[in-house]
Write a structure and sequence with these properties.
alpha+beta; 5 helices; 3 strands; about 100 residues; three-stranded antiparallel sheet
Length: about 100
């Protein structure tokens, strides 16, 4: 399992070449996520498209991932819940 807190530019390039918002893009992220993912890890997994602060804000509005896990003061999400959320939030628009 990769650590998302370490920059992995090869992985980022691979995700971009697969096409942001494609099924291959989402599968690639899902395969590398642990069973429970923190807000920070989810932000890194999306390349910063969704920040940890956005996740916190959307949680307070009941618009974030559905299944939350708390460990002390840290909040995480189940892999399935995190993936459902990013599938809903990330779309690709080509303005050519």
């Amino acid at each position: 399992m990769q650590q998302y807190l370490q920059p992995n530019f090869d992985r980022s390039d691979n995700l971009i070449h697969q096409g942001i918002g494609t099924e291959a893009f989402f599968r690639s992220i899902e395969q590398e996520l642990p069973p429970v993912v923190s807000r920070a890890e989810l932000a890194k997994a999306t390349g910063g498209l969704i920040s940890a602060k956005t996740l916190s804000n959307e949680d307070s509005l009941h618009k974030g991932p559905a299944e939350r896990v708390r460990a002390g003061s840290k909040i995480g999400y189940t892999r399935a819940s995190a993936m459902a959320y990013i599938r809903k939030k990330i779309t690709y628009y080509d303005k050519r």
